[in-house]
Structures are given as structure tokens and as C-alpha cells.
């Protein structure tokens, strides 16, 4: 059912796709804006801040983001998406403003936690909107477009921060002011476009009635399935547990790279100015065609999902290894581009698709919650741990090696669990 927005010929679901893509762009411009400017932040706050302390900025953000996931999901169901999303982005904007006025690192930590809490309102609201409004036959590709906003925002944030702050010597706070302006634009768009609770309820009732009629016409004699609760045993069976571990490793590598790659390129590989942001943004921009290409391929060869996952994860680990061991800038950039093309954003939709097919049917929501929790916990650990390693060794190379090891081990465990499953099925 294609419902058109008021005063416009565009279908409502198409506006939702554009709106949510822009939302991810805004969030990721903020997320990636500070890491290229770590030396400037350090200098403005006295020059005595360690890499551990700088990495803790990202940890604080992701701590707030992870903490908000379950409460935000509950509130979306209870009071509606618009009533969760708008206050969340107001908190996000105020937090970015607080960071721009920071006179010490502790103020940045506090602002980062609140920015994470504010952004945490977006995930549940966004994917409730996509699942309820985008036609089923257009949902996969539309969701890929929405997700691409994170890659675009990450690339823009890195490039803008490196160009304005590192090369043109603007104050690092400039990126926070840009973030506040983008957040204000998004708030206006949320108010103007997203339906209120009453309109949403009416639309959902019509959609559910239409879907029920479709289902009844297609399978009038379908048996009624009794509801049951998902058990802990099924939730943490070996194949599910190893899928969670694999996702933790996948996210660890990605968030370590997003947080520390600009600083690594500038302090350890001799990149300067805008070249830092441009080079780091290659990971984000290369991920867009990778996600679209491999998702389509996995849908075409549905019985090969495990093979796709395993091959992509091993190749991503190899590209990270190439990045850190490259002896020339050309090889390093090739490694970054291929890691983006083969890495998290390419493999994530396939893992989620595999999860939907293998999770307990009565507990898919709970399973996805546990799955996302494992993944996002890595974002809390990776930035600070890599900063601590840098302080202890004088280099961030070991952070990359840890990511490679985690990817290889996680992938091997996932493959082993699925090989055992095939063997058991055959027997």
C-alpha cells in the first residue's frame, strides 16, 4: 500500500527512506568528526591527554548508545516513534553543543554519553518505520539505501574534519557546530514528515487488514501455531553463540578502524591534512557498493550464505592485515578500499539474513536483541583498548592485529558450528 504524504506526490515510504538515510548521515558525521581532530583536542585542553583518554571519548558515546537500545525499543512500542525520536535528537543536539563548549576532557566525556543516549533513540524508531511502511517487495533494497547513510556520513565527517580542522586550522569545535546545524534540520524534517500516533495507528490497521486478507486468500487452511517462549538453551546454542561472537569480532574491527584509523594514518603513516580524511573515508565509501552487491548475490544463492559469510570475513581480515603491514601508501589504500568493500557493511546483511533463518522462530526479536548487544559491546571496548595499547607501545598497530585475530577466530568458530550442523543433519 503506497500512502502519499500530505501536500506531496511522493509516496510516504519513499520519504521515510530519504529521511532515515539523512538521519544516519547526521549521526555518522558527528561520530567520525572528532577522531581526526584528536591532536587538536589534546592541544586545546593542555596537551597532556593520553591516547587512552582520547579513545575513551568514543567509548563514552557507545556506552550511552548501547544503554539506550532496550529502553528506546520499549518506548517506541509504548508511546510511538515520533515521541521517542524527536526528544532523542534534542538531547543529541544539546550534547554536541556541550562538547563544543568543553574546557576539559571530562566535559567531552559527559557530552559523549548524552550524545550516545540521544542517538540511541534512532535505531528502534528507524527500523520500526521501515518495517511498517516500506512495501515488502522493496524492503531489502530500501533498507540498504537507509543503511548507506552511515557510510556517507562517516566519509563526510572524516573529510570535513580533516580538511577544516587539520588542514585549514579551524577550531575543532567547528565540527560540533556543523553537527548541531544538521541535527536542527533533521528535527524540522521529523516534525514535518513522520506521522503522529493516530495517523500511524490508522495506517497500521489498514495494512494489517490487507496483509491478513492476502494471507487468508493464499493459505485459507493454514494451521494456527501456538505461541511459546524462546529458551536460553536455544538462544545460546553453539551455532547461535558463535554467530554472536562472529558479529562481536566484525564490529570490533570496524569500530576500532573508524575510531583510530585517521590518527594512525596521521601519526604513524605520514598522511597530512585532508589526505587523512580522504584516505580514512575510503572504507566508508567502498562499503556502499559492497553491501549492495553481496546482499543481492546472497539473495540469489540463498543456500550459500554461510560460505559468503566465511569468505568475506576471512578476506576482510586479510585486508586489515595488508593495511597495517603495507610498505607503501598505494598498498595501504588498496587494503583500506578492499576492507570497506568486503567488511562489516557488506557481510552484516548476510549475517542478519542467516540469523533470521536459524534463530528460534518464536524468539527472533529476543535473538536480534542479544545479537546486536554483542556487536555493540565491541564498540565500547575497542576505542579505549586500542588507545591503551598505543600508550603502552607507542603504536596502534597491535590494535589492528587484535582485530585480525578476532575476525579469524570468530569466523573459524562460526564455520565449525555450521559444519557440525551439516554433519548432524546428514546423520
UniProtKB/TrEMBL annotation:
Q: Which PROSITE patterns match?
A: MFS (PS50850), SUGAR_TRANSPORT_2 (PS00217)
Q: Does the keyword Transport apply?
A: yes
**Residues that span the membrane, as ranges:** 12-33, 53-72, 84-102, 108-129, 141-168, 174-194, 241-261, 273-294, 306-326, 332-355, 362-386, 398-419
Give GO terms: molecular function aspect only: transmembrane transporter activity
Chief place of localization: membrane
What keyword terms does UniProt attach to this protein? Membrane, Transmembrane, Transmembrane helix, Transport
Q: Extract the signal peptide range.
A: none
Cellular component GO terms, alphabetical: plasma membrane
Matching InterPro entries? MFS, MFS_dom, MFS_Na/Anion_cotransporter, MFS_trans_sf, Sugar_transporter_CS
Q: Where found, per UniProt? A: Cell membrane
Domain Major facilitator superfamily (MFS) profile per the UniProt entry, residue ranges: 16-422
| Membrane topology according to the record | Multi-pass membrane protein
Task: Report which superkingdom the organism of origin falls in.
Answer: Bacteria
Under PANTHER family, the record lists: FI19708P1-RELATED, SOLUTE CARRIER FAMILY 17
Stated name of the protein: MFS transporter
Originating species: Enterococcus plantarum
Amino acid at each position: 500500500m503506497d500512502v502519499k504524504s500530505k501536500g506531496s506526490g511522493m509516496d510516504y515510504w519513499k520519504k521515510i527512506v530519504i529521511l532515515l538515510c539523512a538521519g544516519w548521515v547526521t549521526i555518522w558525521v558527528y561520530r567520525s568528526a572528532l577522531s581526526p581532530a584528536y591532536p587538536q583536542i589534546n592541544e586545546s585542553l593542555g596537551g597532556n591527554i593520553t591516547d587512552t583518554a582520547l579513545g575513551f571519548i568514543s567509548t563514552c558515546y557507545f556506552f550511552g548508545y548501547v544503554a539506550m537500545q532496550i529502553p528506546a525499543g520499549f518506548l517506541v512500542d509504548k508511546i510511538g516513534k515520533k515521541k521517542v525520536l524527536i526528544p532523542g535528537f534534542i538531547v543529541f543536539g544539546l550534547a554536541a553543543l556541550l562538547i563544543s563548549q568543553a574546557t576539559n576532557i571530562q566535559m567531552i566525556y559527559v557530552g559523549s554519553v548524552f550524545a550516545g543516549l540521544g542517538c540511541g533513540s534512532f535505531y528502534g524508531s528507524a527500523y520500526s518505520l521501515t518495517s511498517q511502511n516500506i512495501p515488502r517487495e522493496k524492503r531489502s533494497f530500501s533498507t540498504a539505501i537507509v543503511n548507506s547513510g552511515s557510510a556517507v556520513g562517516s566519509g563526510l565527517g572524516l573529510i570535513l574534519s580533516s580538511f577544516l580542522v587539520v588542514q585549514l586550522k579551524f577550531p575543532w569545535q567547528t565540527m560540533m557546530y556543523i553537527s548541531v546545524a544538521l541535527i536542527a534540520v533533521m528535527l524540522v524534517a521529523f516534525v514535518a514528515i513522520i506521522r503522529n500516533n493516530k495517523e500511524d495507528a490508522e495506517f497500521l490497521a489498514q495494512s494489517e487488514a490487507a496483509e491478513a486478507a492476502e494471507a487468508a486468500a493464499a493459505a485459507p487452511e493454514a494451521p494456527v501455531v501456538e505461541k511459546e517462549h524462546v529458551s536460553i538453551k536455544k538462544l545460546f546454542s553453539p551455532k547461535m553463540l558463535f554467530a554472536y561472537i562472529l558479529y562481536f569480532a566484525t564490529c570490533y574491527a570496524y569500530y576500532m578502524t573508524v575510531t583510530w584509523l585517521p590518527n594512525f594514518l596521521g601519526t604513524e603513516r605520514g598522511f597530512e591534512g585532508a589526505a587523512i580524511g580522504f584516505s580514512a573515508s575510503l572504507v566508508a565509501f567502498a562499503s556502499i557498493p559492497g553491501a549492495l552487491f553481496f546482499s543481492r548475490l546472497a539473495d540469489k544463492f540463498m543456500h550459500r550464505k554461510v560460505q559468503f559469510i566465511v569468505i568475506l570475513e576471512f578476506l576482510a581480515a586479510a585486508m586489515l592485515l595488508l593495511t597495517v603491514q603495507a610498505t607503501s601508501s598505494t598498498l595501504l589504500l588498496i587494503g583500506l578500499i578492499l576492507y570497506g568493500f568486503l567488511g562489516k557493511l557488506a557481510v552484516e546483511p548476510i549475517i542478519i539474513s542467516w540469523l533470521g533463518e536459524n534463530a528460534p522462530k518464536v524468539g527472533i526479536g529476543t535473538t536480534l536483541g542479544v545479537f546486536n548487544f554483542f556487536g555493540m559491546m565491541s564498540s565500547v571496548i575497542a576505542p579505549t583498548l586500542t588507545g591503551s595499547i598505543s600508550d603502552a607501545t607507542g603504536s596502534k598497530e597491535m590494535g589492528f592485529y587484535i582485530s585480525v585475530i578476532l575476525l579469524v577466530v570468530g569466523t573459524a568458530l562460526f564455520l565449525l558450528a555450521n559444519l557440525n550442523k551439516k554433519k548432524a543433519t546428514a546423520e
